[in-house]
Design goal:
alpha/beta, Rossmann fold, Helicase, Ruva Protein, domain 3, 3 domains, 16 strands, about 15% strand, globular
């Protein structure tokens, strides 16, 4: 097989030589040039598996070259060399379509990791299917699948937004499995489930004897995900001191375990998610603006189930078949009236709520076809089947949700855990919904 070919674009001969020697030691054939015009000519003349470009060039900058490559539809992964600590430039490069960025002074270990990831992306076409699937044929889901495939080809941090129960972790797993890090670890962590006093140890690890109870060395989440993907779910729950430390790790690509003097390099792609409005939290001072712009290079919105039309029935049949396989029984059919009942419901708990509803429904159907009476949707269904034609749709939905939550709370003596169980949603989803609806 022929060697991969890389293009180095830098007007400083010393940097060109350093990059060329490093790439040649990785068994990569290299061409080099000193300005944007020459780089465009090289990229037109033949196919490259990698491009490394400096920011400042005599006739433009690296961002011009990145933008031109995207406009030309060139598949070559391009990494931009930026000044140390210039986060704004790095974020702009990633937004324009750069595969990754490298800060000066050059860290050769980091450079080798970036090059290896880029070459895997160039040499291995995306797999035809992943272990996880995003079911549905609605336009919002088709658009989301297309965006997932596109962002999977870069190393840019992706922030996934959407209501509770929409499948944000599923989207993160698909990005990981379609990208160059698919052979590495996918490490999901719920930031709201870690006690604040344990966060630094959980994220960065610790050394034996560094504090009371540290009886052995422990790697953190960043070390465990080295070479793979770290998914920070509910990132809005991070306290401000931890946000500062996370920002530094993302920028420097190094961590320092508690009790260790030296920092150690980590090669991790960051994906994050939350159901909260991070922009509002930034405005109120509850989330750092610099961290927000660092993790929100690319934003993906997962649509709620009520925006997905007939996907509801496709998902319902898939869930019923999966539950039937688990129970060793044939999957019950959905009658036309039951299907209509499901489609009329707004699903405040989204796909997770649909799963809970169908689990109860399967038990009530006694093995036969599922009828409308078997589908217990609480008070919400009655309102959504015959909605008031006046007023704004969002206001009607909020009114329906507020009434359903109020009735569930009253029925369970204001025990939120029991009320959430009755509504078929998680306690976190209930709290979020109550906060959004201004219910105290």
């Amino acid at each position: 097989m022929s060697k991969p070919l890389a293009l180095v674009v830098d007007d400083e001969p010393d940097i060109r030589d350093l990059l060329t020697i490093t790439l040649q030691r990785m068994d990569i054939e290299t061409r080099s040039c000193g300005d944007v015009s020459a780089a465009k000519a090289q990229l037109r003349s033949r196919e490259y598996q990698l491009c490394l470009t400096d920011m400042r060039l005599p006739d433009g900058d690296g961002l011009d070259l990145v933008e031109w490559m995207q406009a030309q539809g060139l598949p070559t992964p391009v990494a931009v060399i930026t000044a140390h600590g210039n986060v704004e430039t790095a974020v702009r490069a990633l937004k324009l379509g750069a595969f990754d960025f490298i800060s000066k002074p050059l860290d050769l270990a980091n450079l080798r990791n970036i090059v290896a990831n880029a070459l895997r992306l160039s040499s291995e076409p995306p797999p035809p299917a992943t272990r996880v699937r995003l079911l549905g044929d609605s336009p919002p889901i088709q658009k989301l699948r297309d965006m997932i495939a596109r962002v999977a080809r870069s190393q840019a941090p992706v922030h996934i937004t959407g209501e509770s129960g929409t499948g944000k972790e599923l989207v993160a797993r698909m990005i990981h499995e379609l990208g160059s890090r698919s052979a590495g670890t996918f490490a999901p962590v719920n930031c709201g489930a870690i006690a604040s006093e344990l966060m630094e140890s959980e994220f960065f690890g610790h050394r034996k004897g560094s504090f009371t109870g540290a009886v052995s060395d422990k790697p953190g989440l960043f070390q465990s995900a080295d070479g793979g993907t770290l998914f920070l779910d509910e990132i809005a729950e991070l306290p401000l001191p931890m946000q500062v430390k996370l920002l530094r790790v993302i920028q420097e690509k190094t961590v320092r375990p508690i009790g260790q003097a030296k920092e150690m390099p980590v090669d991790v792609r960051i994906l994050s998610a939350t159901h909260k409005n991070l922009r509002a939290l930034v405005a109120s001072g509850q989330f750092r603006e610099d961290l927000f712009y660092r993790i929100n290079v690319i934003e993906l919105r997962v649509p709620p189930l009520r925006e997905r039309g007939s996907d509801v029935l496709m998902l319902a049949r898939h869930i019923l078949e999966r539950q039937a396989r688990t129970n060793g029984q044939p999957a019950p059919a959905l009658s036309a009236s039951a299907a209509a009942r499901l489609q009329a419901y707004p699903f405040p708990g989204n796909v997770r709520e649909l799963e809970n509803i169908l689990e109860r429904t399967s038990a009530l159907s006694a093995g036969g076809a599922i009828e409308a009476d078997d589908v217990q949707l609480q008070t919400v269904a009655a309102h959504t089947e015959a909605p008031d034609e006046s007023g704004d749709l969002d206001e009607r939905l909020e009114s329906v949700q507020r009434e359903a939550i109020q009735q569930a709370l009253e029925a369970n003596r204001y025990n939120k855990t029991a009320a959430a169980r009755q509504l078929g949603i998680t306690l976190r989803a209930l709290r979020y919904r109550m906060q959004k609806l201004a219910m105290d």
